[in-house]
Write a structure and sequence with these properties.
By secondary structure, the chain is an alpha+beta fold. About 40% of the residues lie in helices and about 25% in strands. The longest helix has about 40 residues.
Amino acid sequence: MKHEKRYYKIGEFAEMCGTKKSTLQYYARVGVLQPALIGENGYFYYELSQIYIFEAIYAMRVMQIPLEEIKEYLKERNPGRCVEMLKSRLAKLEEQKKVIERTENLIKRSLEESEAALSAKCDEFEFVTFHEDAPYYAYTFHDRLAANYRALKNARKWITHCIDNGYNESLRVIEFVMPKHVRDGSFEKTYGAFKMFDENSSDRDTDGNIFIRPKGIYVTAIRHSSGTDIPSVYRALVQYAVENGYEPCGIAFEEDLMNQMIDQNRDNYLVQCYVPVRKV
């Protein structure tokens, strides 16, 4: 005796699957799980066996496999394609995990720096020693005064490239003053940069944009500044160094301790300047 097929309304099938009618309607709309029958009244009807297809879809969605990939896979399910799909998904998750870890470290570092900046003491001059060279991912300022638009466009290009590729240890911007501009007293900046993560420091061929801050003795001070009076900070540092038996001897640099992310008032930006020195 031949039995007629039993069909279930969409609400009944949804209840059996433990999902919502809207989910089944969406799956039907994107072609992942079509109803076995559409009545003349437009109602969706499903066969009991389709619950196994739903379970497969549910398992793949738990693994965050995109519906488009699920749709293609369901056209021809077999062990070989399943292994291939899962390997691909695992590789993508490993990459996502790296991005999440990098982002987490960046947030933690930025939080530490922001909290430290709140307690920073301004206009106190001191000598500090860096015992190791430090790698920075740098971009060039192209004639900043004569072509500010081009300079900013170039800066944004490399800042975005640096952040998108995870080269930066934090979001603090570093700007370097080359020795000739230290000597002539203009303190014009040539390079902008980000401190690199240690894991990237050995990659000295990264687009040719690795800039090394030399180890050594530096005279430093912190000041609230909008940027226009930063050369005066450098000049005061040089004077302080000379008065204490030192002379400038290399690449100076400044670091934003508080910037546009923290404070909307540019006059409240907190900058720490460094000038390398040696004993006379």
